[in-house]
Amino acid sequence: MPDEQDEFEEAWAQIVADLTSGRDPDAPRDASSDGSSIADATADPPADPPADPTAGLSALFEPLRRPPSTPEPDERPSRDPGAFVDNWQDEGHFEPPPPPEIPVGTPVKRLAWAGVLGGPTTLALVALTGWDAPRILSIAAGLVTIAGFVTLVWLLPDSREDSGWDDGARL
Q1: Closest CA to 122 of 109, 140, 99, 110
Q2: Smaller CB count within 10 Å for the chain: N or C?
Q3: Is residue 17 packed enough to be buried (19+ CB in 10 Å), middle (13-18) or exposed (0-12)?
Q4: d(CA 73, CA 53)
Q5: Residue 24 — φ and ψ, nearest 5°?
Q6: Three-class secondary structure assignment of 96-121
């Protein structure tokens, strides 16, 4: 394992040296121990490496630093694929369709929901306030809750509206 780690460290150091030296990393290499390429062996010796170790990397990002051209107010900017766009409005964006309207429901369903939600709410308010409510109010709240639940279950459709099988996946 240590040999693999040493080989990894050497390869990583070579990659970093290629990026910071400004030399073409895709150029073929010879078998010399200094890691210079065949093209470098025939050329003049390389100059001293730049003082800034990130100089090679900064050249890669230079096209991104170009200031975008400012278009005329009534003219849309060009869609040059090589130009850097720093404004999301220039790229365009997805606008979803408006959501469907909320279904109103039938009066029976609305009363059933009022019972399912109103009965427990009434019982919770009576319990939280400490009010000594008449027994008939507690019984009525419980019965309204049960009746609303049974009504909502009764009104559930027997099957889906679409007749075909669907597992929910959309392509």
Answers
A1: 140
A2: C
A3: middle
A4: 42
A5: -70, 115
A6: CCCCCCCCCCCHHHHHHHHHHHHHHH
pLDDT tens, residue by residue, 19-42: 887 666 566 665 554 555 555 545
Yes or no: say if 19 and 56 are a contact pair by the CB < 8 Å rule.
yes
In three-state secondary structure terms, 36 is coil
First to last CA, the chain: 47
What tens digit of pLDDT does each residue of 93-141 get? 677 889 988 888 899 999 999 999 999 999 999 999 999 999 999 999 9
Angle between helical axes of 135-154 and 107-129 (0-180°, round to 10): 150
Q: Which two tokens stand for residue 33?
A: 């121990």
Separation CA 146–CA 105 (nearest Å): 20
Place 148 in a pLDDT band, splitting at 50, 70 and 90.
Answer: very high
